[in-house]
Amino acid sequence: MLRGPGVRAGTGAALIGALVVWAALLGPLIALFAHLSPAAVVSSLRQPGAFQPLLTSVEASLLALAVILLLGTPLAYLMARGRLPLPRLWELGVILPLLTPPLVIGLLLIFMVGPATPLGGALGHLDLTASDTFFALVVAEVYEAVPYYVLGAAAAFAAVDPELERSAAILGDGHWRAWRRVTLPLAAPGLATALAVTWARAMGAFGAVLIIAYHPFGLPMQIWVTLQETGLSSALPFALVLLVVALPLPVGAYIWSARARRRL
Amino acid sequence: MLVADFELARREFLVRIDLQVLPGERVALLGRSGAGKTSTLEALAGLLSLSRGEIHLGERRLSSATYPAADLPPGRRGVGLLRQNPGLFPHLTVLENIGYAKGVAPEVARTTGERLGLGALLGVRPRGLSGGEAQRVALARALQTKADVLCLDEPFNSLDRPLGLELLELLRRELESSGTAAVLVTHRLEDAQAFAHRVAVLHRGTILQVGDPRELVLRPASREVSELVGYQGWLVSGSQTMAVHPDLVHPVEMEAAGELLARVVGAIPQGARIELELEAEGRWRGRFRCRSERSAPLGALMRFAAPGAPVYETGVDRDGG
């Protein structure tokens, strides 16, 4: 290991730089707590219907998460194992919603699933109108959050040595059984992290939601509307609620995932 | 009996295998790296599709180039595979790894683990194992599959030599007691000889010679085979090439007629013996080696006998021994 005054000074500077970045990242959170009084939180949340946006957001995010999990997991696995034809094209499809501003996603969704489109018409026959409905909220959340899950899950699957799947096959496992007994448990820490980030993105989805699902109010929309109508101090308690609901899962998943990785 | 008669298309050459393995028989496939040994094992284990031919185990057809959709999947062929990389499941304990295959009772896995000297490690995860221990676990796991044929892809080559030989001997005993047939691929003649009833020499995808492990050394059918079974000198005289094995050539009296005349150009200790490096003079030209009990001064002219040394016609390889 290198020693000497130059090295010590370099390490010190790096540490200070890291501290600045850390403090800057945590700054908004610290500011939130500094500007919130317990009395303000209680009075905001005691208003009639205060919890309805929270309930709507949790329900829509859980549903979005289920859809993403169900459709995104096979796609992520096939991408990780290189079993899709034209792999770059699939990757592009996954990354595009990530690169597109959420507001634009919302606008484009109107052209795709809006009531005036053929797809929207077909959905209308199933009582699923993708404009200002709970269904529209789920669709918007899925579009905003899905790339985070697919890319994270693909990385988690790619980290599992395919040779282990072959070993399981030679020991008598079919594809599904080997996937369940070997691939899934080994990818689980990475999948948990991907899922946690996806949950946070779905809970906080705003841009696309603003365009196609202004109603029913989810929590981000409640914050926005409260901010517009009654000001910052009334909106802050809802921001706190959003953080309290959205953060424990990612933080818990991160801790579990770090521990699980150490055990392997 | 395993009957394999197939071809595999590879980028550089075609792998052509025609091999039978009797129940309980141990066969070694001897060849250099890239000769097609691993591909052959992967085809037997069901990890590669055939370009031509079929593989049968007893009455069952395991693979066929004509009906690849009907190929039996790896776990249902009765063919096990043990590789150089033990491929242990890192999230499972040693006991869970050993008992991974379907239908293996935990008590049976425990007994096998204990028999293979893993009793104290059964609750440990693979991360804490040494290379030798990991390979022992992989061996125990492969034995649990109750395969009729076990394919062995140089499983102990990454271990230090004494440990590798110890595990090879352990494996040989286990196969003997269970009556399981095995195909070992290796590039080491001594492993093939220590393990197998028969050795098949594989060179660029083709089996050049199959035979008793000692016969193969005494009577290699071609120069390529001689290179793979320990010959270290090829002397040329006109259109003929004589292969000389360092253990099958010995010094004789200078007065002996018609033998090899050679000058000592080097002497290297090899265990308890000395390996003399020699430059042939007279009818045969070229360099060869002789493992001798006595050293000799550099530059000394000596006479050697190489009884039964195979002689090949250049361009037309055939046994001249």
Write the layout of secondary structure elements.
The complex is a heterodimer of chains A (264) and B (321).
Chain A: H1 5-35, H2 38-46, H3 52-80, H4 87-99, H5 102-113, H6 118-125, H7 134-158, H8 162-170, H9 175-204, H10 207-212, H11 219-230, H12 232-246, H13 248-263
Helix pairs in contact in A: 2-12, 3-7, 3-9, 3-11, 4-7, 7-9, 8-9, 9-13, 11-12
Chain B: E1 2-9, E2 14-21, E3 26-30, H1 37-45, E4 52-57, E5 60-64, E6 79-82, H2 94-98, H3 106-115, H4 131-144, E7 149-153, H5 161-178, E8 181-186, H6 189-195, E9 198-203, E10 206-211, H7 213-218, H8 223-228, E11 233-237, E12 240-244, E13 250-252, E14 260-270, E15 273-281, E16 286-292, E17 301-305, E18 311-313
Parallel strand pairs in B: 3-8, 3-9, 6-7, 7-8
Antiparallel strand pairs in B: 1-2, 1-4, 4-5, 9-10, 11-12, 12-18, 13-17, 14-15, 14-17, 15-16
Helix pairs in contact in B: 3-4, 4-5
Description:
Chain A has 264 residues and is mainly α. Chain A has two domains: 8-46; 51-263, MetI-like (MetI-like fold). In chain A, 81% of the residues lie in helices and 0% in strands. Chain A is built from 13 helices and no strands. Chain A has helices at residues 5-35, 38-46, 52-80, 87-99, 102-113, 118-125, 134-158, 162-170, 175-204, 207-212, 219-230, 232-246, 248-263. In chain A, helix 2 (38-46) packs across helix 12, helix 3 crosses helix 11 (219-230) and helix 4 packs across helix 7 (134-158). The radius of gyration of chain A is 22 Å and the shape is globular. The mean pLDDT of chain A is 89. With 321 residues, chain B is α+β, with helices and mostly antiparallel strands. Chain B has two domains: 2-218, Rossmann fold, CATH 3.40.50.300; 231-313, OB fold (Dihydrolipoamide Acetyltransferase, E2P). In chain B, the strands form four sheets. A six-stranded mixed β-sheet of chain B has the order 6-7-8-3-9-10, sandwiched between helices. In chain B, strands 13-17-14-15-16 form a five-stranded antiparallel β-sheet, with no helix packed on it. Chain B has a four-stranded antiparallel β-sheet with strand order 2-1-4-5, covered by helices on one side. In chain B, strand 7 (149-153), helix 5 (161-178) and strand 8 (181-186) form a beta-alpha-beta unit. Classes of the chains: A mainly alpha (264), B alpha+beta (321). The A-B interface holds A 161, 163-164, 166-174, 181-182, 185-186, 263-264 and B 45-47, 73-76, 80-81, 85, 87, 89-91, 100-102, 125, 127, 141, 145.
